[in-house]
Amino acid sequence: MGGEATKAISKEILWGGGRSPFSVTYGKMMMWYFLVSDALTFGGLLTAYGFARAGSEDAWPIGEQVFRALPGLEGEYPLIYVALMTFILIVSSVTMVLAVEAGHRNDQRGVVRWMFATVIGGFIFLGSQAWEWSHFIHGSGGMFLLAEEVTVTDVDGEQFTLNAGDAVYMDHHLGDAVAKWREGDLTVSMHEGHGNVMFVDNGHEIALETLTLNKYVENESAVSGADAMKLWNARSENFAFGANMHDSEYAVQQSYANFFFFITGFHGFHVFSGVIINLIVLIMAVNGVFERRKHYEMVEKVGLYWHFVDLVWVFVFTFFYLI
Amino acid sequence: MERDDLLVNDSYALNAHHSEEEGIKIRKNIVKVTVLLTILTTIEVLMGIFFKRSETFTWTAIKWTFIIMTLVKAAYIVMVFMHLGDERSNLKRVVLAPYLVFIAYLIFIAITEGFGHLSLFSTFH
Lengths: 323, 125
Known about the structure:
- The complex is a heterodimer of chains A (323) and B (125).
- With 323 residues, chain A is of the alpha+beta class.
- Chain A has 2 domains: 22-139 and 267-322, Cytochrome c oxidase, subunit III, four-helix bundle (Four Helix Bundle (Hemerythrin (Met), subunit A)), CATH 1.20.120.80; 143-240, no CATH class.
- Helices cover 54% and strands 14% of the residues of chain A.
- Chain A contains 10 helices and 10 strands.
- Chain A has helices at residues 11-14, 26-54, 63-66, 80-104, 108-138, 172-182, 226-233, 255-286, 289-293, 297-322, and strands at residues 143-146, 150-153, 159-162, 167-170, 188-193, 196-201, 204-207, 210-213, 221-224, 235-240.
- In chain A, the strands form 3 sheets. Chain A has a 5-stranded antiparallel beta sheet with strand order 9-8-4-1-10. Chain A has a 3-stranded antiparallel beta sheet with strand order 5-6-7, with helices on one face. In chain A, strands 2-3 form a two-stranded antiparallel ribbon.
- In chain A, strand 2 and strand 3 form a beta hairpin.
- Chain B is mainly alpha-helical.
- In chain B, helix 1 runs antiparallel to helix 2 (57-81).
- The N and C termini of chain B lie far apart (65 Å).
- Chains A and B meet through helix 2, helix 4 and helix 10 of A and helix 1, helix 2 and helix 3 of B.
């Protein structure tokens, strides 16, 4: 601990001019100022999310119901994938702080090794986020809104009275067929009979068996048989499959999907630029630029930015996914 | 123009050029914080999975537990990983004080505007 930051210096000298009163270099101070302003931007976004959610008249989707898929696996794993992403980002933050520590010992090999690990961690996170976006955009089956009031009994025997405008969710295979049928795809046809509705897609028959209520909020329940047909027959023209900029299957109001795209997208853009900056510093370290400068402060500066990206994710994780 | 990013004599650098022994101590601390962050995240995820949302006091308490754990995690990241804890206290204040203003502003806006949508319909006829 040889720096001036830990030394007692009298106020007259500290603020007397000719030196940095904060005992940091210009570049590092400006990085801190940039991060202070950037954190306020994210604070504003999360605050807007909170107000939109509190003011929403319709049910707001909850994290562990929306994000419960893992790549390549069937079944439900609520929040596990997001937790994995959080862990990847924490680990890459740790490798970054180890790179900074190696820099303080002028250990070029250590800096290169840990910066390389940080860049890899960043790419893994970006890939994970790409998968999550893809899954969110494709959705899982789609939904339609009811045109009239219906009373149905779910498979557990509980009775639901649904109003016009309430959402009903389809399972994945039926949703895919319905999406094609609605687009006028000639390979799909629908026929009704025997108290059931069947879609034929390229010779494969898909029957409406089960519809889901309250899929992305509390008390998810399944409706099948004649009651499912009652829901289907009461459908309106409003369908949504997955999510895009004007429709989403996750909620009747669009703001949930918009906030997802904007907040995680803006954070992902920060991760992307952070990875690029880390890559540049890694190349500089390999080329011995910092050996010639005799200090590794640049690693510390990009480290600040990278930790900030992790810090923002900690808040996004809590306020967007958990609460 | 004189450049201060050249770090003359390393005088501004935080724990610049520490020795191998000090390095071991710092790395030990890093591992400790890593373990803590991982444990807190795991607890958060398990709580998110197992507790059902409701209008009860339990859920409100859980929500506040999430927020407190998040702030603890954020504090460790900023103070240890970003080394703000090792910086001069005037820099600490410059970085952290804006958020006190921000939080005070948020509380003000939530109290004055939080129910604005309820009077929206009576405003326009």
